[in-house]
Amino acid sequence: MFKFLNLEPEIFGLEINDLSLRIAKIVKNHRGFNLVSFNETKIKTGTIKEGIIYDEDDLVKTIRLAVDTVIGKKLGTKYIVASLPEEKSFSQIIQMPKMTKEELRLAVPIEAENYIPLTISSTHLDFQVIDFHDKDGINHLDLLINVIPKSVVESYVICFKRAGLIPYVLEIESQAIVRSLIKKGQKNPPLLLIDLGVASTSFVIFSDDSVRFTSSVPICSKDLTDEISKKLGNSLSEAEELKIKYGLSKNSKNNIGPIIRPILANLVLEIKKYINFYNNHSSHDYFLSSKEPNSKIEKIIICGGGANLKGFFDFIVNELKILVEIGDPFVNIFEYDQKGCQMIPQQRILSSTTVLGLALRGANEKFKI
Are residues 243 and 315 located together in one domain of the fold? Predict the structure, then answer.
């Protein structure tokens, strides 16, 4: 079919966090999915903080620059599937009686207000049915609800439109991370996905084919750089270079391990807290998807730029005593061709997990979680 006869618009993924912006466009062909466009640029410090936009003019300027200087094929479209900040969202599994979609649209907002720390009128709410239970003749549905303040959503939409883009889909980062790292159609035992980013770390508990729980903590890769700079008296750029070069590896001249290890130890404590929370509640209908009682988290998948830290993988394995894997953001891309992508440097692939998940949604609207 000719392109001008295709009523579905082409869409690219746009990821924005406190310190960086990424663009990716994926197209679907007879061999699977193929990455054709990519870009990554820094966002000026202070433009966005903890997901809140403080300088719309600068963000609009950065978006326009990233779009105009994209690597690979020109984007050729203004439609985007964009991320919303995980730290400003709230996700919860709730139970509802079995009812039609129209009935759910009316009933879910009323029920959701019992679970979220915000008034429904001040938020945007989305939900998806993830399970149906039939126990003792009582039918009920498990729904995953996602809630985010309207003020946050509207500020991003304004910037997108000012930059000449058209928001087609908006979703929180955890949904894109799952889409990027979990093989499509594959049933999974409970997994914990950890995205160690520059500005925050996100936790996503995933089981079978559904997100079960999400959270975000303010422990991040930037904290490591800041601590190195503080303790050694170096500039932030020098501290960043030391972090990248040495990480947790031992070196008599530049042993920064003792400086950053306490921060990573705090991260491990947070990870253990969420693992224990899930494992202690895994028999509850809210979390039980595999229908196997008392199922536990069996594996951790790590991604994000912080996962590249030298020695971090071994540190996590030793501390948690659980199977840990480095995520593969290309698991659903190049389905029959595992050559990788030269547009993204090897050391930046894990940092691109979210934007590749967004781009997959843009390549195929049915490619949801």
Answer: yes
Q: Which residues are within 8 A (CB) of 185 and not within 5 positions of it... i.e. 6 or more apart?
A: none
Same domain flag for 200 and 68: no
301 and 219, same structural domain? yes
Give pTM, 2 decimals.
0.88
Residues of the chain above pLDDT 70, percent: 88
User: Is 121 inside any structural domain?
Assistant: no
Q: Residues near 273 by Cβ (< 8 Å), separated by ≥ 6?
A: none
pLDDT of residue 7: 58
Q: Give the dihedral of Cα atoms 282, 184, 218, 257; nearest 10 deg.
A: 100
Q: Please tell me whether residue 82 adopts helix, strand or coil conformation.
A: strand
Q: 311: buried, middle or exposed (CB in 10 Å: 19+, 13-18, 0-12)?
A: middle
Domain of residue 47 covers 1-87+148-184+332-369
Taking only the tens place, the pLDDT of each residue in 12-46 is: 999 999 999 999 999 988 778 889 999 999 999 99
Identify whether residues 212 and 256 lie together within a single domain: yes
How many Cβ atoms sit within 10 Å of the Cβ of residue 218?
11
* DSSP per-residue letters across 325-357: EE--TTTTSSTT-----TTS-GGGTGGGHHHHH
